[in-house]
Amino acid sequence: MIGFIAFLHSALCICLIVVILMQSGRGGGLTEAFASAESMFGAKTNEMMVRLTAILAVFFLVTSLSLTYLNAKKEQSLMGAADVAETLTLPDIEIPMEPATDATGVVETE
After folding, report:
1. Count of CB atoms within 10 A of residue 73's CB?
2. In the predicted model, is pLDDT for residue 4 greater than 80?
3. Residue 8 in 3-state DSSP?
4. Cα 22 from Cα 40, distance rounded (Å)
5. Run of H or E including 98
6. What is the pLDDT of residues 11-54, one digit of tens each?
7. CA-CA distance, 62 to 90, in Å (whole number)?
8. How confident is the model at residue 110 (pLDDT cuts 50, 70, 90)?
9. Axis crossing angle, helix 2-22 with helix 45-74, rounded to the nearest 10
């Protein structure tokens, strides 16, 4: 279930990026680079792109929240980093302490 939602979330990310880049802004957007986009979508291309962006953003938010909820319920990292951190142990290393010296290199005694 989590794998399917993660795939859907990734696909929504790519679609959302493409739709946002196609919108006309100050620079014109990608729709002006391709003249066929205006004829394919009609005169209200900009309005349709804004609605499509809003719809994709809502689905993106829903998949983000559902992945978060399912992952919190599982109590394990989605990437599996928690398993790796638990299995790694550092060896105990004894570090010898050297006597403190002042700026001239003379050993301070107490």
Report:
1. 8
2. yes
3. helix
4. 13
5. none
6. 999 999 988 888 766 655 565 565 555 556 666 677 888 889 99
7. 40
8. low
9. 150
Report if pTM > 0.70: no
Amino acid sitting at position 86:
E
CA dist list (Å): 100 to 1, 36, 60, 105, 107: 60, 77, 59, 9, 6
What is the DSSP-derived secondary structure letter of residue 107? B
Contact in structure between 5 and 63 (CB atoms under 8 Å)? yes
The domain segmentation of the chain, as residue ranges, is 35-74
pLDDT tens-digit map of 47-77? 888 889 999 999 999 999 999 888 887 766 6
What is the separation, in whole angstroms, between the first and last Cα of the chain?
Answer: 66
Residue 59 and residue 12 in contact, taking contact as beta carbons nearer than 8 Å: yes
Instruction: List 101's β-bridge partners, or say none.
Output: 107
Q: How many residues does the chain have?
A: 110
Cβ neighbourhood burial of 52 (10 Å; 0-12, 13-18, 19+):
middle
| Tokens of residue 27, six digits | 């620079």
